[in-house]
Structure prediction request, 97 residues.
Amino acid sequence: MEQLTQFAPIILMFVVVYFFMIRPQMKKAKQEKSFASSLKKGDRIITKSGMHGKIVDFSEKNNSVIIETGAGKITFDRSSISMEMSKSLNEPLIEKK
Prediction:
């Protein structure tokens, strides 16, 4: 019984680390993966580097997207698209009365 009480704080630390650090990271990674796979032509997006544009085409061979910007067409990797900013761009505008 004494051995169990010695290891209880260590076990508790692993449980806390799992629920507050590992699990949220896994959840966010899953959301980002589903977001990247749900992209479609015509979506307005922002890359993680701040480039704004609209998706024109996909390159499945390179796992990349072709984005049309003011300067022309640029190819980016799917993982470089910012999930948070792109979602807010594609939401419909709600007018305040």
Summary: The two ends are 67 Å apart (CA to CA).
